[in-house]
Design a protein that fits this description.
single chain; 461 residues; alpha+beta; Beta-lactamase; Nuclear Transport Factor 2, Chain: A; 2 domains; 4-stranded antiparallel β-sheet; 12 helices; 31% helix; signal; Diverse_Enzym_Activities; Beta-lactam-related; Beta-lactamase family protein
Length: 461
């Protein structure tokens, strides 16, 4: 057989694999939409700078029965921080600032408590500034910074991660001061226009006239946002004050998001050195790496390095695997959702994790493992009985029974439960659950002396 024929057969084989994964994406997302009451969704899969899957499903607006399309602008909420991070790194690349600059270089009348806070710490939520919700009474970035100046630090800079809005308010001020333009103009000039992102922008929704009138700019082809309530959908608004836009509030289409993801696989927006710096987490004061880098979360999935960000909590879900040059973006208009869809799509395109067949450790208390193995299906179905729990786990059981089915109820049946770590008293344990052929999940469990569960937490791995 000649080389040309071998090449053709190889190409056909890879094409079938790509189409097979693509078909599975459609089936998976439609099933999740039905299971979790998601009116509309869209997905993009980008590999090595090329879009290999782009699709939309369901309804963008239930009142008008308007279909979701690949141009539909979904609210991406905190996914906006990825764009803010790129703007920050762009200014680093221009030599206009450094990540290790002190924020007090850019803030007038800077509090002495802020003297050691760096721009890197602001962007990685390790500044020590108070976490918490936004304050709609702040009319501007300047007013919000003045409010933040009067608040004590919640922790020492670099001590821990604390996800909040004040970090990105200060970054907004720095970006506008150094960049010489308002935040939204910087986005348009440095990212949206160069990439042809024509369905991305903010609605500037505001409560006015004694908080009884809601005004908003027109966003072309915008999806409404919904929240499932027991047996019906409700339309849902979260108002992003103008001073918080660097932290959240952007609307974007899956087509635009695919262009953004593709650009980050090459040098279009940032060169390799800047991208590496953006995705490198700082060390906390105790020497451990932060779970946030510059505007992105960092971690591992299926044994691979992952950078990501979600928002809303799952109106947007973006994951990127730099070593594979694979990105997945899933957008939805359902607020009552957990950000797991991008992972589940990504696993259709990634090879099995290298630890899939690892044997685990010797189990000195197998009765605890068997009890947990019997209980987990009930937890994933939202039907766990309180008699198996104690303490904080029992207090939060209603939330567990509500959210674990949303988060994990679509997994295949568990086939194995493997003990990975065990404390000397066999009360604190880490397990790997294998679902179906190659989907894995870690469970962190703490038992009391009687064998009841005092703490339980699942994590993707």
């Amino acid at each position: 057989m000649n080389l040309q024929r071998w090449g053709l057969l190889l190409l056909l084989g890879w094409t079938r694999l790509a189409w097979g994964a693509s078909d599975k994406v459609d089936a998976f997302l439609r099933a999740e939409m039905a299971r979790n009451h998601i009116p509309g969704a869209a997905v993009a899969v980008v590999r090595e700078g090329k879009v290999i899957k782009l699709a939309a499903y369901g309804t963008a607006n239930l009142e008008w029965n308007a279909p979701a399309t690949t141009r539909t602008a979904f609210q991406i909420a905190s996914g906006t921080k990825m764009f803010t991070a790129v703007l920050l790194m762009d200014l680093v690349g221009q030599g206009k600032l450094r990540l290790d600059d002190r924020v007090c270089q850019y803030i007038a009348d800077c509090p002495s408590a802020w003297k050691d806070i760096t721009l890197r710490q602001l962007a990685s939520h390790t500044s020590g500034l108070r976490p918490g919700p936004v304050d709609a009474d702040n009319a501007s970035v300047t007013a919000a910074i003045d409010t933040a100046k009067r608040a004590p630090l919640a922790s020492a800079p670099g001590e821990k991660n604390a996800y909040g809005s004040d970090d990105f308010v200060l970054l907004t001020h720095v970006l506008e001061k150094v960049g010489g333009a308002p935040y939204e103009q910087l986005l348009r000039d440095r990212i949206f226009t160069p990439l042809g992102m024509t369905h991305s922008g903010f609605d500037h929704a505001t409560l006015t006239e004694a908080h009884v009138v809601l005004t908003s700019d027109v966003v072309a082809e915008r999806s409404a946002t919904y929240q499932w309530r027991a047996d019906h959908q409700q339309q849902y608004w979260f108002l992003y004050p103008r001073y918080t836009l660097a932290a959240g509030g952007l609307f974007s289409s899956v087509t635009d998001m695919s262009r953004f993801a593709a650009a980050l696989m090459g040098d279009t927006l940032l060169n390799a050195e800047l991208r590496s710096s953006m995705w490198t987490p700082p060390r906390l004061n105790d020497g451990k790496p932060s779970s946030f880098a510059v505007g992105w979360t960092v971690g591992q999935y299926r044994g691979r390095r992952e950078v990501a960000h979600s928002g809303g909590p799952a109106l947007s879900d973006t994951v990127y695997y730099p070593d594979d040059k694979l990105a997945v973006v899933v957008l939805t208009n359902q607020r009552r959702l957990s950000p797991t869809l991008a992972h589940r799509v990504a696993q259709l395109f990634l090879s099995p994790p290298p630890f899939l067949n690892a044997p685990g450790i010797t189990d000195a208390a197998p009765e605890r493992t068997e009890a947990l193995k019997a209980l987990l299906p009930a937890l994933l179905a939202g039907k766990a009985d309180s008699r198996h729990f104690t303490g904080a786990a029992k207090d939060s059981l209603a939330d567990l029974n509500e959210w674990l089915p949303i988060q994990l109820g679509g997994l295949p049946r568990m086939s194995r439960l493997i003990l990975l770590e065990d404390s000397a008293d066999h009360l604190t344990r880490t397990y790997r659950a294998i679902h179906g052929k190659d989907q894995t999940l870690r469970w962190f469990v703490r038992f009391d002396e009687a064998g009841q569960i005092a703490e339980v937490e699942p994590r993707d791995e």
